[in-house]
Amino acid sequence: MAPSDSLSLSCDHIQNTRQLGLVASVLLAQGDQQQVRSLGQRVLKVLESRQPEGPSLRHLLPVVSKVTSLAPDALHEEQTRALSKRLGDWLRYASVQQGVAHSSGGFFSTPRARQLGPVTEVDGAVATDFFTVLSTGQRFTEDQWLNVQAFSMLRAWLLDSEPGGSGAPDADDKSELEGSTRSVLSATSTASHLLPPQEWLREKAFEYCQRLLEQSNRRALRKADSDLQKAVSARRAGGRAGARSLAQLPLSGLLGSPQCLVEAVLVLDVLCRQDPSFLYRTLSCLKALHTRLRGDPAWVRALLPVAQFFLHHGEAAAVDADAVYQHLFSRIPAEHFHSPMLAFEFVQFCRDSLPLFGRNLGVLRTSFPNLFKFLAWNSPPLTSDFVALLPSLVDAGTAVEMLHLLLDLPCLTAALDLQLRWAPLLTASALSPPLLAPGRSCSLPSRASLCTSSPPPDGSPGAQPVFHSAVQPPRPFRVSLQLLAGSGHRDVTVTSTLVSPWPVGTVRAGAESSFGWPGPEPTSEPSLGSLSAHRSLQAASERPPWDVSIRAPGCLEAFRDSQAQGLFQHLLRAQASGTVERLTPLYRLLQPLAGCARVVQCAEAVPTLLRAFFSAVTQIADGALASQLALLLLERSDSLYQVPGYEAGVHRVLSSQFPALCKLHPPLVVEHAKELLEFVGGPRSGGHVLTSVVWAIGEYLSVSWDRRCTVEQINNFFEALEALLFEVTQSRPSTTLPKCPPQVITVLMTTLTKLASRSQDLIPRVSLLLSKMRSLAQSPATGSMPGEEDAGAVRTRATELLNLLKMPSVAQFVFTPSVEVSEPRYHRDTNTALPLVLRTVSRLVEREAGLLPG
Amino acid sequence: MVHVFLIHTLRATKAEEGLCRVLYSCFFGTENSPNDPQPHGAERDRLLRKEQILAVARQVESMCQLQQQACGRPAVDLQPQSSDDPVRLHESPCGAFRLTAGDPFQEPRTVVWLGVLSLGFALVLNAHENLLLAEGTLRLLARLLLEHLRLLVPTANLLLRADCIEGILARFLPHGQLLFLNDQFVQGLEKEFSAAWTR
């Protein structure tokens, strides 16, 4: 794909590694497979020909990595083996002395080389073992660079170079590898020296990862050293300012050990998959690692690969990893839902590991309230992932609860927002109140007692007293909320910890009156005190994740309201509780937050999610569940959190799903006649759901779907719908109410006619009613018919129905076709009765219609 | 492995709303599927890549916009107060999202993005990369580019300095390989880059 035939690059005779690297980037981008292969060969040749002390090979390793990912067959098997061997060497035997600093003094200075001594660990101590990416020094030797490169490409290489499923390479490899790699080998002549190269590399990779785990532990040990931590956080905050002393700043806050730790665990995972014999050596240290990590919020993202490891290998190692999953699903979403990257990674993890969950799928499924917190807070990037995830999360046992929560998702967003806003106030008071303990009113002190002095009069900035913790030094930034999983009848208590991402000292009494963040840029330097250093990192580096422009004074009150507490508890539960609470009081309390962009974004995502939910649930639903869900639709259609545009979007989905549920289980119309009657007789908000309910009544209220259907039932429905039709067409109490959409009128008429065709005593009534409607529609100005076009539609429908009713037996056949009619043969075969009947009927109807005026 | 690195505009001015400009992009390797029936020719491939890049840039822009809105940060917040202010990279909005296979790349990809004032930086990654590392690398690249190109100074002309960007990428993201660089390695590479650049 060179831009012109006359312009072509070739790598064939390039010896200079840097030049080869540059040419490679062009050739790789051009993407010609043949070129990529020959490039791979060339690079390998250069790599093989060089001695380790030659000029920098490090420009070539990324090329190899890229070539193998683009063209997996570019390297021959023996080349792959040889390179594996060398990678192992680079990983394990890089020099532990710092590089040589060539003094760059004046013209007269002798070209004197200065040895800087051994490399150091992350905490400044002299390295105790071999060199890794976490070892530091002022200058690095070439093999140390190669070490970094080798580790960076290790995981991909292990995966790519795995010989196609065939176990270990055979014994004759050994001689080859000796020949090709002898030059590179430094010390050590252990027994492992004789391993086949692939295994050699795995062994070295394993040692390397173990060492990284140990080194990251070292860092954790020094967590208490707040000087170092502050220095790191200052560097983060202030960019590159500040003196840089090796001893003080050994590790960049940007590229630190969490990344290495994650990679180490991922590599260990690959190793154990490729060679199960590593499993027993790995398990114990990963268990210890998990115990270490789970207590520290700063390392939370490293927990995911650990959990993934246990998912992959828990079964094989006969380890009960339930505790790992429990912690993962119960704590992390509740505490870290506001971190967009973690949310993405967590959901990716769930999605990618679905096939692996096996018997642990239950943990995932019951944790959906927690998982939905990610969704509620970060709906734009996560909606598509959840659409993919929902089919696996939906379970017959929790479907009803899940639907409720999906419909309440914007409300959950608002509640999470409130939870975040509230956490600093709690912390400011240095309380860990049994805030949401069931059956107890909140023991928060009154607002006045929270302040160190009375709030200043409005408009006196600067005189605002700063909220200080009552206890000095302030406690770590943590508020324990006892969230009860379930509604009180279970004993399972999940302790949720709110980690506040901003410092304590900046919550001001002045802001407290409006419960808003004082401003995007807190002016006073937060007094970090003895806050956990990691927490302070987090705190110093983030602005509050909520919309600071929206103040919600009343909402925070709601958290103290004894009635609302239980509801908040329910909404913010960590696991499926098996119960359903009506959250209507919360909608009112959270109304001020309904205009938040985040809430609106979430509300916009809900219709999509509902569709995904229903398409999943209709696959598994039995009759009982279908009728439960159908009732839920009716109930929730007018009980939603009032977010702009939300109700209309949800109604559109609900109205399309109600008929689908009825189709799944037709007897539900007869079974729940009472509820349906109440619905059509009750107050209504929108036309969409009503239309589909009325249609479903006409379609499924029939003996052919359920033997229990009685004439009384049909009559009852007829009367209710007749009254409804009258109400929507003739007695509009005020002109301000929106006009009734014509769809509702036509569907009502059709349904009434359908019912009449099943209980023929009603035919005179419905005929009268239809002709009334027709005449009403003919003079739209006097009636409540919307427009001329709509009136025309109503008129046409009324005429058609009237004509059909003139032939009651035909009407019955048309309106209540037998179930077999839907079978394909009635539609494929022109000789069967149905097409014939339809044609006849339509001819009759058309002729009748043609005779009638209008 | 990084598939693409790109820099694009965020939040264009009112006059050109909805117009997202890609300022720089770099593909590391192509994704020719082996069963491609026939090579399409250089020009068509180039156009395809441009479309792919633009599709990613637009998504990043809207993700960034949505995130900013959700946090209640007005658009004015995104203009630099003064060119002397150090950019608070750690406060810049960042996020990740997934691209499904075929839309717009053949394979599923993950995008990690970072919005710095009016510039968006994004890495398009293979599906199972170490996101923590990618995020760190992206922040590092953004910092280096801002420093060395003085991108936020009004007169900076990013479009004319692709060679400098290439120089940084070749060292810190060689051939799309994410590197585990601790602070000392970063310094070493920075020195090497500065030396090569001033020469």
From TrEMBL, chain A:
Any one cellular-component term (Gene Ontology): AP-5 adaptor complex
Domain AP-5 complex subunit zeta-1 C-terminal TPR: start-end pairs: 385-427, 534-844
Pfam families hit by this protein: SPG48, TPR_AP5Z1, TPR_AP5Z1_C
Coiled coil: none
Ranges for domain AP-5 complex subunit zeta-1 N-terminal TPR: 1-187
Polar residues biased stretches: 180-190
Superkingdom per UniProt: Eukaryota
Domain AP-5 complex subunit zeta-1 ARM repeats: 259-373
Annotated region (Disordered), positions in chain: 163-190, 447-467
Protein's recorded name: AP-5 complex subunit zeta-1 isoform X2
Automatic annotation (TrEMBL), chain B:
UniProt xrefs under PANTHER family: AP-5 COMPLEX SUBUNIT SIGMA-1
Transmembrane domains' residue ranges: none
Gene Ontology biological process terms in this record: double-strand break repair via homologous recombination; endosomal transport
Organism of derivation: Balaenoptera physalus (Fin whale)
Highest taxon listed in the record's lineage: Eukaryota
One protein family per Pfam: AP-5_subunit_s1
A GO cellular component entry from the record: lysosome
Name of this protein: AP complex mu/sigma subunit domain-containing protein
